[in-house]
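S.,

Sequence below, as promised.
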Amino acid sequence: MPRWSPSRRESRGPLGRAKPDGASAPRPPGGPAPGPDGGRGFFVPVPHTLTGTVHGTGGGIYRVALEGGATVEATLRGRLKLEDRTGDRVVIGDRVRLAEVGDGYAIEAVEPREREIVRRTPGRQKAKVVAANLDTLVVVVAARDPEPRPESIDRLLVIAEANGVVGVLAVNKVELPGAREAAEELAGIYRPAGYPVHLVSARSGEGLASFSDLLCRVSSALVGPSGSGKSSLLNVIEPGLALRTGELSRVRRGRHTTVSSRLIALSCGGLVADTPGFSDVGLWDVPGERLEGCFPEFEPHLGSCRFRGCRHLKEPDCAVLSAVDEGTIAPSRYQSYRALREESLAG
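The prediction came back faster than expected:
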């Protein structure tokens, strides 16, 4: 479909149809139209359809960035509300088709999602999709103040693996006293496990060139505990953003709508999801039998255990347990796996 822009729209005929060279004045809607054989047919009005990506949701209103660069607000077409979709019917990152309805727009179709970020809310049996079509989940922690918790990092990286997105670790505040050693220790755990690790400082600017280059090339979500410096990092990378410290992932209430999620468009071309709920690392749902596949460093050892279906907990001749004993798998990573596996068995 051609990209839409105001200039293109002005050059099109009634209802968005392109006018052939030398075309005469447009026909009134419903008037007769010449057929391909020169006969007379009937002109049937159709709505002008646009395509774009959902950049904001809240209060039943969806902010959609059109392919031509403009941004419009839209509501949800009635028939979409009846469709059985996973979690929310429309979330940030969804690619949608809009129809002009009166003086506004309505979402009439949602294209199939390539990826979904899914979490489970306590007390609810149905998984909730919070973002679609993202390709990177960046776990942001502070090397100091607050102290990083490897088990929390691992839970978030499991979310990335389970949802088919790239997991990245960013360790902020490396300029603080004693923080360098803690940051290097984390890098020593997660780089061998296969994860890119960025040691950064929003205050001194250390490591921000490569970290900024990453965010400019991907559509991502920055997740992690409060106080890790997610908003501060984005403010340095995108100075015009002017996020207040702690603003990222808070629900913003306006006079008429509540914006619960949004995609922040960086001037360099990247997109960053701002989605409340990720700060609570307990909100996740991965079947126990899939957990081993969510720890990349386990992969070389899977299939070498004595027993088929080994859970890697206390079974004899377990290749994963042997790798832990040999130092190939970090003990903290294995302990996170064990805790999550036992949670799944208990649940």
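Residues 288-346 form a domain with the Ribonucleotide Reductase Protein R1; domain 1 fold (CATH 1.10.40.50).

Coffee later?
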